[in-house]
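Input (structure):
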């Protein structure tokens, strides 16, 4: 019998799944652990948190804080596909506005670059970022 244990290596897809699991639980320390300290997140410009964010703290403070400040986020699905040029994730869920209770169905596609067991870059794509921006504008105004 061999007492040696072999290390299990996480695939890039596993790293993204770990990130999505933490996001789904609202586990900010888990999200931070899955992200490279100098992660780059590129969000659609139309959104209130749009633009390029560099670093874990910028992602949490600029993206997650704005999203959760406007609405409760409930992820309902996460699919992860690994290919030769990176990992693609598709997240589905619902945003529920704190101010009005309006629900917004959310579907995002993300392209992840994973290095050394952490997510180094995320490019975020939405089918219609203008609709999501309008939802955030309504939540801020307290109207439907």
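Output (sequence):
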């Amino acid at each position: 019998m061999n007492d040696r244990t072999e290390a299990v290596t996480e695939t890039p897809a596993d790293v993204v799944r770990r990130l999505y699991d933490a996001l789904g639980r609202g586990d900010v320390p888990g999200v931070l652990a899955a992200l490279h300290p100098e992660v780059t997140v590129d969000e659609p410009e139309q959104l209130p948190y749009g633009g390029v964010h560099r670093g874990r703290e910028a992602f949490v403070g600029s993206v997650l804080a704005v999203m959760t400040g406007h609405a409760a986020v409930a992820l309902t699905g996460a699919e992860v596909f690994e290919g030769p040029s990176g990992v693609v994730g598709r997240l589905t869920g619902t945003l529920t506005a704190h101010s009005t209770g309006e629900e917004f169905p959310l579907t995002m596609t993300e392209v992840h670059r994973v290095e050394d067991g952490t997510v180094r870059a995320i490019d975020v794509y939405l089918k219609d970022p203008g609709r999501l921006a309008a939802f955030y504008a309504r939540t801020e105004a307290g109207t439907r």
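Notes: The longest strand covers residues 71-83. DSSP finds four helices and six strands in the chain.
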